[in-house]
Write a structure and sequence with these properties.
Structural class: mainly alpha
Shape: elongated
Largest sheet: none
Number of domains: 2
Strand content: under 5%
Oligomer: single chain
Length: 116
């Protein structure tokens, strides 16, 4: 739009016309180079984590949270009632994660083998 206004201006000089055309061509070239020659990020090439990896990481996090909770309770940060409630919640979540880990590992070990 701006280029059309500049080109349509009656007092436009040839230098202004060439400057606008050069800027447009440069922008077009940069866009084409970016689209077709951009290198993918290393994280795009990294393998995706499996369900088992995600569950194991969650399990480790819950164990860490339980350890921290126990330490903070011993240092007097939480009352006995709060400690028990949070501990029960974390242990229930841990039980669900461990059950999911068992399901995933059983599914991997009981895969039927293909006919040879």
């Amino acid at each position: 739009m701006l280029a059309m206004l500049i080109l349509a201006a009656p007092d436009a000089t040839p230098f202004t016309d060439w400057a606008v055309l050069t800027a447009c061509a440069g922008l077009l070239a940069a866009t084409v180079l970016f689209i077709f020659f951009i290198q993918p990020d290393a994280s795009d090439l990294a393998p995706r984590r499996s369900k088992l990896d995600q569950l194991m990481e969650r399990r480790d996090t819950i164990y860490d949270n339980l350890r921290d909770l126990r330490f903070e309770h011993r240092s007097g940060k939480y009352s006995e009632g709060d400690y028990e409630a949070m501990k029960d919640s974390l242990e229930n979540e841990l039980a669900m994660v461990l059950a999911a880990v068992d399901q995933v590992t059983e599914a991997e070990t009981k895969r039927p083998r293909g006919a040879r």
